[in-house]
């Protein structure tokens, strides 16, 4: 069961300039009443303003907006990474993000070791990772390469590995920043299929993108963000019947 | 994948979530050590060899300079350098723990305390590589095995608790004020000379005993003396009890106040 509620959520965060990142300068400014270091160097960004959202099982939310409109911040608030400055957020269900699949990949570790590391960082137990390692290995199609350090891999192979690990588990809520597409022609078909499967099995999908056609294809609800506020919230056509069939099976 | 909703947790709950995920921080620390040496032939033994070389060079020289019998001086110096290296590398790593772990903190359900434990575990693994040097030294110096050496264990726990608290406090402060990293590392250099790493506290002239009341000197005593076959002084234990409580209180306060801001700072 998955459920997500954002109630009047606002996020403001400070961006510290070089001045404000220094204790010496901050103390000097405080001690001299700002006469020596007039420039405080702190910019407060209002990244999100009064956002209320409720998402239930089966909802596919598309987030659109210009660069800097707050899409990524909203994804991080939903993921529970950024605590809102005001308002509250409630979440039921496991969550995973396909935002940064390369995080924690160690170049000197072997493919198998990286499966273990990535799995742990994504919140899995070692026993669970061990159980799904053969599937990940098979899907990645990397075979014996998994036993040698990933620094010897080509970029395409590395992306295959990261993708295979990131999409190996199903969670109740899935967060994506743009569509993930990977490598060579062979693998791309396979990857699209896998991504479909992961998305169809997730209770709630939250997808941020610039591409309107992508949002219209994948989502049943779309919001437009502008300067951190929701300017439009609209339903998008019915979900394709095929998706229903797959998730039922 | 995570069911934890960070906002619902108290600061304590957040800390505990990361603490109890031993598999995660231990594996990260393990790979930190293993991978660092994977491409060199000697592997982790480099650390053992370089510390050994340092000791072999300094021991006879300083024993002669201080006019202390080398049989007494060498074990003192060995443990002094081994533990001091452990303290300073843990504290210096602690300053950067959240800055370097920024990407991890932006993963759903990743608790900051995982990074703290990872740093402590990594440094403890490195300590294991150098502490073995003490065995031949102790045998050579004829230090008899004694039940007092078991006091090392509770002493080491006290050291870990304090380093954990230092890491949280400094890690958060350094994430906010980046120049504290340099301030801490130069203070540690100064402290090395104010701490009996090389010299003996007994050779201090009367009034200067006050400098022994720096926490790192006391923490050094509580792990070094047992391994030399002595018990730490009651004064050391009293001092450290008070200091540990204070240290934890500061770390808890800093963590409590800054936890919600930390991810925005890094």
Annotation keywords:
heterodimer; A: 249 residues; alpha/beta; Rossmann fold; 6-stranded mixed sheet; 3-stranded antiparallel sheet; 8 helices; 9 strands; 35% helix; 27% strand; globular; B: 266 residues; mainly alpha; 74% helix; disordered N terminus
Question: Strands, helices and their partners?
Answer:
The complex is a heterodimer of chains A (249) and B (266).
Chain A: E1 3-16, H1 23-31, E2 42-56, E3 60-65, H2 71-79, E4 86-92, E5 95-97, H3 111-121, H4 126-140, H5 155-166, E6 173-177, H6 185-201, E7 204-208, H7 212-218, E8 221-226, E9 229-235, H8 241-248
Parallel strand pairs in A: 3-7, 3-8, 5-6, 6-7
Antiparallel strand pairs in A: 1-2, 1-4, 8-9
Helix pairs in contact in A: 3-4, 3-5, 4-5
Chain B: H1 11-20, H2 22-38, H3 45-66, H4 70-100, H5 102-105, H6 112-131, H7 134-141, H8 152-176, H9 180-194, H10 215-227, H11 234-265
Order of helices and strands of chain A: EHEEHEEHHHEHEHEEH
Question: How much strand of chain A?
Answer: 25-35%
CATH level-3 fold name of the domain at 54-97 and 204-248 in chain A = Rossmann fold
Number of helices of chain B: 11
Structural class of chain B: mainly alpha
Tell me the total number of β-strands of chain B.
0
Structural class of chain A: alpha/beta
By DSSP (H or I, 4+ residues per run), the number of helices of chain A equals 8
Indicate the overall shape of chain B. Answer: globular
Multimerization status: heterodimer
Biggest sheet character of chain A: 6 strands, mixed
Instruction: Provide the gyration radius of chain A in Å.
Output: 21 Å
Which CATH architecture of the domain at 54-97 and 204-248 in chain A is right?
3-Layer(aba) Sandwich
Low-pLDDT sequence parts of chain A: 241-245
- Strand order of the main beta sheet of chain A, please? 5-6-7-3-8-9
């Amino acid at each position: 069961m998955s459920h997500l509620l954002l109630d009047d959520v606002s996020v403001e965060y400070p961006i510290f300039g070089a001045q404000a990142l220094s204790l010496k300068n901050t103390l000097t400014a405080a001690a001299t009443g700002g006469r020596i270091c007039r420039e405080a160097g702190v910019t407060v960004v209002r990244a999100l303003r009064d956002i209320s959202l409720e998402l239930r099982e089966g909802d596919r939310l598309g987030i659109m907006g210009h660069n800097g409109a707050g899409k990524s911040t909203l994804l991080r608030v939903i993921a529970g990474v950024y605590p809102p400055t005001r308002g509250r957020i409630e979440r039921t269900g496991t969550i995973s993000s396909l935002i940064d699949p390369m995080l924690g990949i160690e170049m000197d570790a072997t493919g198998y070791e990286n499966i273990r590391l990535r799995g742990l960082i994504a919140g899995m137990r070692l026993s669970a990772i061990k159980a799904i390692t053969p599937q990940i290995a098979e899907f990645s199609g990397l075979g014996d390469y998994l036993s040698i350090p990933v620094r010897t891999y080509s970029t395409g192979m590395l992306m295959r590995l990261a993708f295979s690990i990131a999409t190996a588990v199903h969670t109740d809520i899935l967060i994506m920043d743009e569509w993930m597409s990977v490598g060579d022609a062979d693998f791309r078909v396979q990857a699209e299929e896998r991504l479909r499967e992961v998305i169809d099995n997730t209770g709630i999908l939250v997808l941020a993108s610039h591409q309107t056609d992508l949002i219209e294809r994948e989502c049943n609800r779309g919001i437009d963000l502008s300067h951190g506020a929701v300017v439009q919230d609209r339903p998008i056509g019915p979900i394709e019947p095929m998706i229903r069939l797959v998730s039922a099976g | 994948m995570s069911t934890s909703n960070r906002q619902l947790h108290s600061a304590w709950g957040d800390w505990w979530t990361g603490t109890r995920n031993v598999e995660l921080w231990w594996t990260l620390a393990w790979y930190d050590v293993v991978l660092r040496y994977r491409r060199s032939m000697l592997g982790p033994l480099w650390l053992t060899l370089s510390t050994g070389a340092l000791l072999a060079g300094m021991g006879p020289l300083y024993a002669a300079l201080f006019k202390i019998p080398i049989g007494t001086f060498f074990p003192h110096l060995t443990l002094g350098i081994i533990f001091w290296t452990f303290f300073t590398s843990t504290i210096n790593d602690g300053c950067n723990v959240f800055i370097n772990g920024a990407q991890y903190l932006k993963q759903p359900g990743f608790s900051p305390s995982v990074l703290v434990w990872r740093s402590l575990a990594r440094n403890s693994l490195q300590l294991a590589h150098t502490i073995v040097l003490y065995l031949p030294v102790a045998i050579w110096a004829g230090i008899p095995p004694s039940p007092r050496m078991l006091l090392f264990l509770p002493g080491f726990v006290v050291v870990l608790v304090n380093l954990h608290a230092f890491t949280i406090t400094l890690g958060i402060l350094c994430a906010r004020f980046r120049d504290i990293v340099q301030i801490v590392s130069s203070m540690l250099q100064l402290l090395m000379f104010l701490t009996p790493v090389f010299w003996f506290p007994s050779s201090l002239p009367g009034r200067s005993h006050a400098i022994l009341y720096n926490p790192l000197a006391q923490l050094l005593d509580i792990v070094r003396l047992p391994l030399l076959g002595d018990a730490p002084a009651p004064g050391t234990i009293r001092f450290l009890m008070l200091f540990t409580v204070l240290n934890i209180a500061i770390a808890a306060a800093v963590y409590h106040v800054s936890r919600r801001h930390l991810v925005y700072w890094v």
